[in-house]
Specification:
heterodimer; A: 246 residues; four-stranded antiparallel sheet; 7 helices; 11 strands; 23% strand; B: alpha/beta; 19% strand
C-alpha cells in the first residue's frame, strides 16, 4: 500500500503555508483491488485565500499558463496544480513548491529528478471538482465528469464509441442512458490518459465495460488484461474512474 | 555608372565606388584616425562607435563655412536625449547653401522651377544668392529679428525658395504649408507659432480660383494676431479685409539698394531654423523645431555621402512645401547641385518624367504612389522620354515594394533605386542609399552614418522576430531642438524617449539583416491590437496583393463594447470594377490571410466600400477610418481629401455588422457563412461561451476532452466536415481549425455562377490568360439568355493548389465540373482568348463522351503559330513585328504586364482614378503558365458547330487563327466580327455587341 510521508492529514508542510488549502484535500475511496493507487479530491468552490495558497506553490510558468485562460478555467488550473504539488510532495518527500515536472516521450507529464522516479500521477477536473491520482505501481490515469444530460449524446455515442459500447448505452433511455454514457466515458478517458495517448487515436480504439464491474474489455494495440479500471464516486452527480497498469 | 548585377540587383561598378564622395571621406577618416576600414559595414560601425569623432571629421571634410570652435562635436555621445552638438560653433545655413566660388560658379544653375502652363523659371547660383540677400535685408527692414517665426502658404516654386531662404538667412524660423491644405489644418499649425510674418501665394495659376486663394489667405491672416505684415510672392489680388501691410516680393527684388545689411550673419549651431509639423493621435499637431547646424550637417551627410550629390548633379525631388522633403531638397544646394521644383498637378503618369527628361535630371525622387500610378496606367517612361541622364531614383513616403524596383529597372533604367526613410521628426533619414553598395530589390541599402539605428525586438511582430521597433541609440545632430509650447520638454520626451529609455523610438517597424540591408514594415503605432494580439497591417496588405479582386484595403481595429482589449479587426476593401464581395471572396480573403499571415490576421468583418479615406497628400488614413468607426471625432478630418468616404464606411460596417449578428443569432443557415464564422458559432454553442475570439485557445476557454468530441461532432453534423479527434491537439483556435479545414478541402470551386438563369442548359465560359474570371462578370451580366452562366477559373488562384500546365488538363477538370452541374444534358461553352482553347478542348471531350454541346463560342482565340499550315507559318514568321505578344516568347513577364496594363487601364476608365496595382504576382505566374500551355496546345478537329468572334483590330504580332479554326471545325465555323482590339473586347462599350453575339449563338430555342 501507499504510505504517506506526513500522515493522512495534509497539514502545514514545508516552505509555504498551505494550512487552509491543504485541508481541502480529501482522500477518495478506491476499490481495494486497485492496490498502490491513491486518489485525492478537492472541490473547486474555494475561498480566494485558499486559491492564493495554491497559487503560491506554482512556478512562474504555471502561473502564466493559467493566467491566459478564462477566469474560471484559470482558477481550476491553479487549484488542480496546487493540489497535485501538495499530494505529490507528501509521497515524494520534497516541498510542494520545489517539485519539478517534465514530460515523457508521449508528452505525458512526469516528475523529474531522482526523487520523483517511480511515481506516476494523473489529474482531472470537472466544473466542480478536481481529482489527483498517485500511483507507485505504474502509469495511472484518472477522469472525472459532472453527469449532465447531453443533447448530442446519441450522435456522439454512435459515431465515436466502439459498437458494443454504443449498443449498450443506447439500449437505455433517460437518466440511465446518461449514467451509462458517463460511466463509459470516464473509463475510456482514464485508460487513454494512463496510456498517454488521449484522443490521439480516437475513442473506438478501446472498449470498456458499460455495465457490471468496471474494466477494459479490449484495446486495439494493447493487452486489455494488464489494465485495472476502478470506478470513483467523488460525490453526487459526479462520476470518475481510475486506470492503472497491473 | 554602368551598373551590373542579376535581375534582382544593381551593383555599382568599380569606378563609381572609387570616385564616390563616401569613398573619399572614408579615406580621409582612415588617414586621420589611422584605422583602415575594411568595408562599409566596418565604416558604419566606426561612425556609430566613435560618433563624436565621426561628426568632427565630417565637419572638417565637408568644408562648410563656420566660425568658433568645433570642439566638442558632441557634449556627451551617450546622452541620447540631452547631448548638444557643436555648442561653440556658429554658422549661417543659407551662407553654406549659396556659397559661390568665383564667377564661373555663380553662373551655374541653382533652381529650375517648372509649372504646368508657363515656361520654367531659372535662377543661377549667383542670382539666387543675390535675391536671397536682398529679400533678407528687406525682411530685417520690416523688423524681422533672429528667432522670429515666419510662416508661409506657398506652392513649390522659385519664389517660395527665395522667401524661405531669405527668412532663415536673417535668422528667423521658417515654416511652410501648401495652399491646397484646408484653413483649419493650416491654422491648427500656425496659431501655435505666433508668427510675425505671413508669406503667401495670393494667386493660383488657374485665374478662376485666385480670388478664393487670396480670400483664404486673408482668413488665415485675420486669425493670427501676432502678424506684423504679409508678403505676397506673386502678383495676385490683395487679400480682402486685412488691415496689415501687404508687401510684394517683386517690390523687394526691385529695390536691392534698400535692403538692410546684405550679409550672412552667423548664428549658434543650434539656432532654430525650420518648424515642421507632425500630427499625433490626439490634440493639435506637434510643432517640431529643427536647428540650423543639425539640419545642415545631416543633409550634407545624406546628400554627399549617401546620395553622392555633387555640383554636376540636378536633383528633382517631387514634393510640396508642406512636406519635409522640401527642406531636404533645399539643402542640396549646399552640395553644389541644382534643384528642380514643380508646382503643378500630376496631370498624368508622364508629368514628372517629362520634367526629368527636359532638365536632364540626374537624381529623381518621388513616392511609391506615383510609381504605382505609372505602372497602373501602363506608362513606360523610358519609351517616351530620354532618361539617359538619370543615375538614381529615390523614393520615400511609404514602403517601396519589390515589384516597384522591377518596374523602375524595366521602365526607367537599371539605376540604383534608393528607397529612403526617416521623417519630419528628424528632418532626415534613418535608412537610405549608399553609392558603394549594391541595391537589392525590395531593400534599403544602409543605415544613416553616425546614427545607431537598430531594430529593437518588439511584441508588435511576434511572428517575425527579425522585425523590430526602429530606434536610434545615440544622439544625432538633427534631433529636434524641441516642440513649440513645450518648455519643460515633457511632450518631447514622451514623444520619442519614453517608450525606450535612452533611445529615440521612431514608431516604424524595421528589419535589418546581418549585412546591414534594411526593410521597412510600416508604422509600429499603426499596429493593431486585436484581442491582445498585435498585428502589423502591412502584413495584411502584402497578402491582399494576391487577391486580384481587391484594388485597395485598410485594416482597422474597432473597439467593441466589451472593452479596449476586445477590439476586433475590420478590413475595408475597395474592389476592382465588376468584382463582388460575395461569401466565396470573403472566405478566400480570410483563408489566404490565415495561411499566409496568421490566424490572428483574419478580420472579423470584411466590408467593401467605394473609397478609403485619403489625405491631401494621397496617403490612406487608417486613423480617420478608425476614429469614424469608433464613433469618436475624426481628429484629422480636415486633412482628408474625401471626408465623405467616412460616412459610407460607417454605414457599410454597421450594415455588415447587423447582418453578421443576425446570422450568429439565428444560427440557422450556416452554409453561407465564412468558415471561421461557422466555426465560431459552433464553438460558442458547445463551450457555452460567447463571444469567442478567433484566437482563443480551446482549452483556455474551458474546453475539455468531452467538449472536444462534442465540438468535432457538431462540426461533422453541421458542416459535413469530419475532423479527426486529434485535431484539437494542433489546431486549438477557431482560426487554426479553419485553416486546417481549408488546407484539406477543395472548397475553392473552379466554377462560379456569374449569372443565374431559369433554363437547364448552362453556359460555361472559360478563363482567359490570367486564369481569373473577374473580367467575365460584365459580359455575363450583359447576356440575354435564360441559361445560367458559369465562369470557369484556373486552379491555383487560391494559392493552395497547383495550376494546370496544359490545356488538356484544364479541359479534363472543367469537363468534370460541367458534368457535376449538368450530368447528361446539353450545355454551351465559351472561352475568352486563351479560354477559347480550353472551351474548344472541352467541347471535343464532351462530345467524345456522348454529351451534347449545343454551342461553342471562341472569343478572339489565337493559336500558336506552329498550328498554321507550313507556308502560312513561314510567311507569318517573316513578317511578324517583334513586339507585344510576340515579345511574350522571349520576355513573357514584360509582355504580360503590358497586356494587363491595357486591361487595367480599360477598367480604370469607369473610375475617377485608376487605382490599385499592376499585375498581381499570382496572376503573373498563372499568365506565364497559361502562355506556355498556349504555345504547346495543338488543337485537333472537332465534329460540331462553333462560332468564332473576331476582334477586327488584329494584333499584327499574332498570326491570324481563322484558317486554323475553319479547318478544325468540320461541319462549319460561323464567324462574327467586332470592331475593337483583342484586349478591349470584354470592356465597355465593346462588351455589349459581344454579349449580343453570345446570346444569339447560345440561343436555346
Amino acid at each position: 500500500m501507499l504510505s504517506l510521508h506526513v500522515g493522512v492529514s495534509m497539514g502545514p508542510a514545508w516552505g509555504c503555508d498551505i494550512a487552509r488549502f491543504g485541508r481541502r484535500l480529501v482522500a477518495v475511496d478506491v476499490d481495494p483491488s486497485v492496490a498502490g493507487v491513491a486518489v485525492w479530491q478537492v472541490g473547486l468552490g474555494l475561498s480566494s485565500a485558499e486559491v492564493d495558497e495554491a497559487m503560491a506553490l506554482l512556478t512562474d510558468e504555471e502561473r502564466a499558463h493559467s493566467s491566459r485562460c478564462r477566469p474560471d478555467v484559470a482558477r481550476a488550473r491553479v487549484i488542480a496544480r496546487g493540489a497535485l504539488r501538495i499530494v505529490l510532495s507528501s509521497y515524494v518527500g520534497v516541498a510542494p513548491e520545489e517539485l519539478e515536472f517534465g514530460t515523457d516521450a508521449t508528452g505525458k507529464p512526469l516528475l523529474s529528478g531522482p526523487t520523483g522516479r517511480g511515481w506516476h500521477f494523473s489529474v482531472s477536473h470537472s466544473a466542480s471538482c478536481c481529482l489527483v491520482a498517485v500511483s507507485e505501481r505504474g502509469p495511472v490515469g484518472v477522469d472525472i465528469e459532472d453527469v449532465t444530460p447531453l443533447p448530442d449524446l446519441a450522435e456522439i455515442t454512435q459515431h465515436y464509441f466502439a459498437p458494443d459500447e454504443a449498443a449498450e448505452i443506447l439500449r437505455r433511455t433517460g437518466p440511465a442512458r446518461t449514467q451509462a454514457f458517463f460511466r463509459c466515458w470516464v473509463q475510456k478517458e482514464a485508460y487513454l490518459k494512463a496510456r498517454g495517448v488521449g484522443l490521439r487515436h480516437g475513442l473506438k480504439h478501446c472498449s470498456v465495460a458499460v455495465q457490471g464491474r468496471a474494466g477494459l474489455r479490449s484495446a486495439m494495440d494493447d493487452d486489455a488484461r494488464v489494465w485495472l479500471l476502478a470506478p470513483l464516486r467523488p460525490g453526487p452527480d459526479l462520476v470518475g474512474a481510475v486506470a492503472v497498469r497491473r | 555608372m554602368t551598373p551590373t548585377g542579376d535581375a534582382g540587383t544593381v551593383v555599382p561598378d568599380v569606378a563609381t565606388v572609387a570616385a564616390s564622395q563616401l569613398t573619399q571621406f572614408m579615406k580621409f577618416c582612415a588617414a586621420k584616425t589611422g584605422r583602415p576600414f575594411a568595408d562599409d559595414t566596418d565604416f558604419y560601425a566606426f561612425s556609430v562607435a566613435e560618433s563624436q569623432e565621426f561628426w568632427g571629421l565630417f565637419l572638417e571634410w565637408s568644408d562648410l563655412l563656420w566660425e568658433g570652435s568645433p570642439d566638442p562635436s558632441c557634449t556627451d555621445p551617450t546622452a541620447c536625449e540631452s547631448a548638444v552638438f557643436f555648442p561653440h560653433l556658429r554658422l549661417n545655413y543659407v551662407e553654406n547653401l549659396l556659397r559661390v566660388d568665383g564667377p564661373e560658379d555663380a553662373r551655374r544653375p541653382a533652381v529650375i522651377a517648372h509649372h504646368e502652363r508657363r515656361p520654367a523659371d531659372r535662377l543661377t547660383r549667383g542670382e539666387l544668392r543675390d535675391r536671397v540677400l536682398t529679400v533678407a535685408g528687406h525682411l530685417r527692414g520690416l523688423g524681422i529679428r533672429p528667432g522670429d517665426r515666419v510662416v508661409a502658404v506657398v506652392r513649390n516654386n522659385a519664389e517660395a525658395l527665395v522667401a524661405g531662404l531669405a527668412t532663415v538667412a536673417a535668422g528667423a524660423t521658417f515654416s511652410s504649408v501648401a495652399p491646397e491644405m484646408g484653413n483649419v489644418t493650416i491654422l491648427d499649425r500656425f496659431e501655435q507659432l505666433e508668427p510675425r510674418l505671413l508669406i503667401a501665394n495670393f494667386a493660383v495659376d488657374d485665374d478662376v480660383t485666385s480670388t478664393m486663394l487670396s480670400a483664404r489667405v486673408a482668413e488665415i491672416a485675420r486669425a493670427l494676431p501676432s502678424l506684423i505684415g504679409l508678403v505676397a510672392i506673386d502678383d495676385g489680388p490683395a487679400p480682402p479685409g486685412v488691415a496689415l501691410p501687404v508687401h510684394r516680393l517683386a517690390t523687394f527684388l526691385a529695390q536691392p539698394g534698400e535692403a538692410t545689411g546684405r550679409h550672412f550673419e552667423r548664428f549658434p549651431f543650434n539656432h532654430p531654423l525650420f518648424i515642421l509639423f507632425s500630427s499625433g493621435t490626439t490634440g493639435r499637431p506637434k510643432c517640431i523645431i529643427h536647428g540650423a547646424g543639425g539640419t545642415l550637417l545631416e543633409h550634407a551627410k545624406e546628400h554627399r555621402l549617401h546620395t553622392d550629390l555633387r555640383p554636376s548633379d540636378t536633383l528633382f525631388f517631387h514634393t510640396s512645401t508642406a512636406w519635409m522633403m522640401w527642406n531636404w531638397q533645399l539643402s542640396a544646394l549646399a552640395s553644389g547641385a541644382a534643384i528642380v521644383v514643380y508646382d503643378g498637378p500630376l496631370a498624368g503618369a508622364d508629368t514628372l518624367w517629362r520634367v526629368v527628361a527636359t532638365e536632364r535630371v540626374t537624381v529623381f525622387g518621388t513616392s511609391p504612389p506615383y510609381l504605382q500610378l505609372c505602372a497602373d496606367s501602363g506608362y513606360a517612361p523610358r519609351e517616351h522620354c530620354d532618361l539617359a541622364a538619370v543615375r538614381a531614383v529615390l523614393s520615400t513616403g511609404s514602403i517601396l515594394h519589390a515589384e516597384q524596383y522591377d518596374w523602375i529597372w524595366d521602365h526607367v533604367g537599371r539605376v540604383p533605386v534608393q528607397s529612403i526613410s526617416g521623417g519630419t521628426d528628424v528632418i532626415g533619414c534613418f535608412v537610405l542609399g549608399n553609392p558603394n553598395l549594391p541595391v537589392y530589390r525590395g531593400k534599403i541599402q544602409s543605415r544613416s552614418l553616425g546614427l545607431d539605428v537598430r531594430a529593437l525586438p518588439t511584441a508588435s511582430a511576434p511572428s517575425q522576430p527579425r522585425i523590430g521597433e526602429l530606434v536610434c541609440g545615440n544622439p544625432f545632430p538633427s534631433r529636434p531642438l524641441g516642440f513649440v509650447g513645450d518648455d519643460d520638454g515633457v511632450r518631447f520626451h514622451d514623444a520619442y524617449y519614453r517608450e525606450n529609455k535612452d533611445m529615440w523610438t521612431h514608431g516604424d517597424l524595421v528589419e535589418i539583416d546581418p549585412s546591414g540591408q534594411v526593410r521597412m514594415h510600416g508604422r509600429s503605432d499603426g499596429v493593431l491590437n486585436i484581442h491582445g494580439a498585435r498585428i502589423g497591417p502591412a502584413e495584411i496588405y502584402r497578402v491582399l496583393r494576391d487577391v486580384p479582386e481587391v484594388a485597395d484595403a485598410i485594416a482597422i481595429e474597432q473597439p467593441t463594447p466589451e472593452g479596449p482589449d476586445a477590439a476586433r479587426l475590420v478590413l475595408l476593401v475597395v474592389l476592382r470594377p465588376s468584382a463582388v464581395l460575395d461569401d466565396e471572396l470573403t472566405a478566400r480573403i480570410r483563408q489566404l490571410l490565415a495561411s499566409e499571415a496568421s490566424p490572428a490576421h483574419v478580420p472579423h468583418l470584411v466590408v467593401d466600400v467605394e473609397a478609403l479615406p485619403v489625405t491631401h497628400s494621397g496617403k490612406r488614413s487608417e486613423r480617420a477610418a478608425r476614429d469614424a468607426l469608433a464613433g469618436v471625432t475624426v481628429v484629422n478630418a480636415q486633412s482628408l481629401a474625401n471626408p465623405g468616404s467616412l460616412e459610407q464606411i460607417v454605414a457599410r460596417v454597421a450594415r455588415a455588422d447587423a447582418l453578421l449578428r443576425e446570422r450568429l443569432h439565428a444560427r440557422r443557415d450556416l452554409g453561407s457563412e465564412p468558415m471561421v464564422e461557422q466555426l465560431r458559432a459552433i464553438w460558442e454553442e458547445v463551450l457555452d461561451v460567447a463571444p469567442l475570439a478567433l484566437t482563443d485557445n480551446f482549452f483556455d476557454v474551458g474546453g475539455t476532452s468531452l467538449g472536444a468530441v462534442r465540438l468535432l461532432n457538431a462540426i461533422r453534423v453541421r458542416l459535413g466536415v469530419e475532423l479527426p479527434l486529434s485535431t484539437l491537439l494542433h489546431s486549438r483556435t477557431i482560426e487554426s481549425m479553419a485553416a486546417a479545414i481549408a488546407a484539406d478541402d477543395v472548397e475553392f470551386p473552379l466554377h462560379v455562377l456569374l449569372k443565374p438563369g431559369t433554363g437547364d442548359r448552362p453556359l460555361f465560359i472559360a478563363h482567359g490568360l490570367f486564369g481569373d474570371i473577374l473580367q467575365l462578370r460584365t459580359l455575363a451580366l450583359e447576356l440575354s439568355t435564360d441559361r445560367p452562366v458559369y465562369g470557369l477559373r484556373s486552379r491555383g488562384l487560391d494559392r493552395r493548389t497547383e495550376p494546370f500546365t496544359t490545356v488538356e488538363e484544364m479541359a479534363d477538370e472543367f469537363v468534370a465540373q460541367v458534368r457535376r452541374i449538368q450530368p447528361t444534358g446539353p450545355c454551351a461553352l465559351a472561352g475568352h482568348s486563351f479560354g477559347g482553347l480550353v472551351a474548344f478542348e472541352m467541347a471535343r471531350r464532351l462530345t467524345g463522351m456522348g454529351q451534347q454541346v449545343d454551342a461553342l463560342i471562341l472569343i478572339d482565340t489565337y493559336v500558336d503559330d506552329a498550328c498554321l499550315p507550313t507556308l502560312a507559318r513561314a510567311r507569318f514568321r517573316l513578317t511578324r513585328p517583334v513586339r507585344k505578344i510576340g515579345l511574350a516568347i522571349r520576355q513573357p513577364a514584360r509582355a504580360l504586364t503590358w497586356l494587363w496594363g491595357g486591361l487595367a487601364a480599360a477598367f480604370g476608365r469607369s473610375r475617377p482614378q485608376p487605382r490599385g496595382e499592376a499585375l498581381p504576382p499570382l496572376l503573373l505566374r498563372l499568365g506565364k503558365i497559361n502562355m506556355s500551355a498556349f504555345r504547346r496546345y495543338r488543337p485537333l478537329p472537332y465534329d460540331g458547330h462553333a462560332t468564332f468572334v473576331r476582334a477586327m483590330n488584329r494584333d499584327p504580332a499574332q498570326c491570324d487563327p481563322l484558317p486554323v479554326w475553319t479547318r478544325l471545325v468540320r461541319p462549319g465555323l460561323h464567324v462574327e466580327s467586332l470592331s475593337c482590339a483583342h484586349d478591349e473586347i470584354l470592356v465597355e462599350p465593346h462588351v455589349r455587341p459581344l454579349a449580343d453575339v453570345l446570346s444569339r449563338s447560345a440561343r436555346t430555342d
